[in-house]
Amino acid sequence: MKVVLLVSYDGTDFCGWQRQKKHRHASPLPNIQETIELALSALLNEEISLSGSGRTDAGVHAINQVCHFETSKKIPKDLCWALKAKLPPTIVAKKAWLAPDEFHSTISATKKTYRYWIWNHSRGSALLNRYSWWIRLPLELNHLNAISSTILGKHDFESFRSEGTPVKHSIRTVEKAIWVRKKSGLLEFSITGSGFMKQMVRNIVGTHLDICFAKVSDAEAAAKMKKILAAKDRTQAGRAAPPQGLFLEKVYYPTRLAGQLKPQ
Questions:
Q1: Can you give the pLDDT at residue 23?
Q2: Is 57 noted as a catalytic residue in this protein?
Q3: Local confidence band at 21 (pLDDT 50, 70, 90 cut-offs)
Q4: Which listed residue (10, 57, 101, 233) is catalytic?
Q5: CATH number of the domain that residue 8 is part of
């Protein structure tokens, strides 16, 4: 049977989602994929191979990461509770369900939503240090949204693709890209699109801030972002925002592929 898990994790103490090849330059930190695989293997008494909706980088978090595995073993009535004792507290299985054979957590995904947090205050936040990027200089919400409006729609996002993961093409569709103020000092960038390349969201956020710091008008800032997008050249865009502010918020799938976990 094919079992789907909805998991959340604090990525601070991990080298990312993906299982790492063993070599002398490998990170000493554990990866999330293998950590869950080992927990499932111990629970079900068989070797489990896990596939995820996508790869999150080192230090990046997930509110709702979707992954799946196949097994012929009997599933505990409450799989998420059974996994609790075998996972570190920074990884939580939130839901589990059975899926049809044609479901694949990576291939079947239709779009994703990411969020990025910026703590925009004259003083840092000890409690948000692991989950946001601290920026002391004041940021204007309308100015940020003037920039983000230029990336809506279907574009070639080559200027925002970091090297490291081969892709067939860099054309993506962004249907939402908006900045909001969650509370005093906390800004959130939310972006929904058909797919995201390596560090694409972090590069977009970093470029937003670099343009803001140039102290130009809203119209000039938007024109600058359009120019960077049209260049299709990573060197023309800004720095990558640090990983700790980024969260995978939601992965979307066709309704027909959903199912419910049935006790075995």
A1: 65
A2: yes
A3: confident
A4: 57
A5: 3.30.70.580
